Amino acid sequence: MLNFHYAIDPRLLAAARRTALVDIDPGLLQFWMSTGQLAVPPHDHYLTTGETVGTPDARFSDCGVPWIHIRPPVCLDLWPFIADPPSEAFTTVSSWMTADFLKVTENGKTFLRENTKRIAFRRFLDLPRHTPQPLELALYLVDKDAKEKARVEGHGWRVRHSREVAGSPESYRSYIQRSRGEFSCAKPSCIAFQNAWISDRTLCYLASGRPAVVQHTGPSAFLPDGEGLLRFTTLEEAADGLERVNADYERHCRAGREIAETYFDAEQVVARILNETLGSKPRSLNDSGATFPNAVLGV
């Protein structure tokens, strides 16, 4: 059983001959576990998409777990290279204001810290004033977000409701493949944890031959940074990344597809998962003698 639901009922796990936890929130999952905010039942294997999880470079606990590193997959057959001329806008599809708040403790005080895309994009609201490149956000918005929407549009962004452009798998794919590329920011926790996270949505852009200019989430041993995928930390770097892509657009399109093929091909990723989880003796949490430290981390 591949478990993406961290707090799954242990009785369901017991029904499977072999189990593997799949960590798709690197840094956050370990933070929740180590601070006692999430009780994860024992599994035979522990997989993570976080490049730094369980390494000396990690800014968070490994929770005493022997993490196996995998990469987020993209199915290249379902996301083929698109040679058709794109629309003029760099886009992304995202949540906005959610209930994603982190319970953190600093200097003996415990409080909630917002960990949303709303906060992430706030630093870059002025970007449309620094680039001629049209930028469009497809956001999940509700009625109470009307003022937020108007504020974002007032800074020069195009804003659409995600339900209009991504209400089905087919429309989601079409929207991405019609885009000129992706521009997106990462949640604050990714920046704080420096987990080298990359979105599976970004992989869909890259596989489609659509370059991505996305926020830098930490040093990576394999993520390219300059062709097809350009990562930024400042508003100036974001504007420069868009300019560099447009200066040699077709080259960056080809490079984006090559990144997806080389590092994130679903066939290769799934083969590694199966080899790691089925080709070796199960390593349960109980067998390893590992425990989850009750440490409190600041984010």
Q: What can you see in these coordinates?
A:
- With 299 residues, this protein is an alpha/beta fold.
- The chain has two domains: 2-72 and 266-288; 90-263, Glycogen Phosphorylase B (Rossmann fold), CATH 3.40.50.
- The protein has twelve helices and twelve strands.
- The strands form three sheets. The chain has a six-stranded parallel sheet, sandwiched between helices. It has a four-stranded parallel sheet with strand order 1-2-3-4, with helices on one face.
- α8 (200-207) crosses α10.
- GO terms for molecular function: transferase activity.
Class from secondary-structure proportions: alpha/beta
Amino- and carboxy-terminal Cα gap: 31 Å
CATH homology group of the largest domain: Glycogen Phosphorylase B
What's the number of domains? Answer: 2
* Overall radius of gyration: 20 Å
Kindly report the average pLDDT value: 90
Order of helices and strands: EHEHEEEEEHEHEHHEHHEEHHHH
Q: State the helical fraction.
A: 25-40%
User: Main β-sheet, in a few words?
Assistant: 6 strands, parallel
Approximate shape: globular
Number of helices: 12
Concise overview:
Keywords: Transferase. This protein has about 300 residues and is an alpha/beta fold. It folds into two domains: about 1-70 and about 265-290; about 90-265, Glycogen Phosphorylase B (Rossmann fold).
